[in-house]
Structure formats: structure tokens, C-alpha cells
Amino acid sequence: MAESEAYTETEEQVFEAALEVFSCKGKDGARMQEIADRAGINKAMLHYYFRSKDRLYEAVFDYVFTRFMLSLSEALGGEASFEDTLRTFVDRYLTFHKEHPAVMRLWVQENLAGAPVVRQKLRAYGQRAEEAPPYIFIRKMKAAIDAGEIRAVDPFQTFVTIIGASVFYFLAFPTMSVLNPALAEDPEAAFEARKEHLYDLLYHGLKA
Predict the structure, then answer these.
(1) What is the CATH number of the domain that holds 183?
(2) What was the pLDDT predicted at 126?
(3) Contacts with 206 (C-beta within 8 Å, 6 or more apart), sequence order
């Protein structure tokens, strides 16, 4: 589906409930009854909509992909400089996962299981994947290299660095907040400082 508005209210409730349960317990540990209870519907209705837990799990990833694409694709459009593109990508990527912590946990659960569903989804997207935010970012970085705006650094490795530095911040926050209590005292300020630091470190490391 192209837009999140294409989902019915019941589907939205189910996806949000399933996302929370799958992200905490993984697909194998999740139970349809718990998802139905969280969504405020009966289990029979849940099976009517999705038939099986496997189908629901796959549908949740379609739901997540849609939200992720909408959140970042528009922000990366246009003819902005790479400096602005990098700042926007770092900001939107970190903000998306701050606002949707269950999505980050779901990515982790899926990858720990070998990412069978995500790999299948990405292959199914085919040429459409070229319009996904990671590919847009990589293309813009290649153009910036060709224009001499930044050094000739591997765009894919840079993308992986952004993802790793972003996701780990949230995963390790309970530990980091012990090492640096200021993080827990004002998590919002810490989050803004993290965005600025990551952008500053990357851009000045890449700048020609």
C-alpha cells in the first residue's frame, strides 16, 4: 500500500499490537491471542483478517516499510546539497526510531533470525527498491563524490555506519546512561546532542 491511510482502523490497531508483541518476543514467541487482546479484538477476527501468524508477521513488515519509506523518502527528495541531505537523513532516521522503538526491536529480532522475511520483501520490491531511502541516500552521496563535495568514501559503508551508530544508541541507552548519568537526567537533550554529534562527525570526516 502506498500510504498508511490505506489501512483500516482495525488493521492499524492489529498492526500496532502485533508490532509490539513481535518486537518483544519474536515471531516464534508471539501468540495470536496476545496480539488480539492488545488490539482489542477477538482471536477469530484476527484469523479472519490474516489467516495465520506467519501472514500477520509478513503484513507487519509491509506496514513498517510503508511508514519508514514515507518518513524518509520525502525528506530526501529535491536537489539539496549533500551536507543538507546527510543532516536530514541522520535527523529523520534517528527520530523515526525514537518515535517507533518497537520497529527497531523488530529489525533486531528479524536479523537475529537471519532476516528471512525482510530478505524476501526486499527481493520482491525489485526496481521499486531503488526509490527506498537507503538507495536515494547512496545515489546522492555518489553524486557528491563526483562533484568533489566530499571525499571518495564507499557510500554503502557510510550508510551502514549511520545505521549502526543510530540503532546502537537506542539499544545501549540503559548501559550508556549508567556510564553517563546526564543521558537519563535529560534524555531529550541527549538525543538532540546525539543527532548533532553524528552529523558533525560524519560530515567533517567526509568533507573534501
Answers:
(1) 1.10.357.10
(2) 63
(3) 86, 150, 151, 153, 158
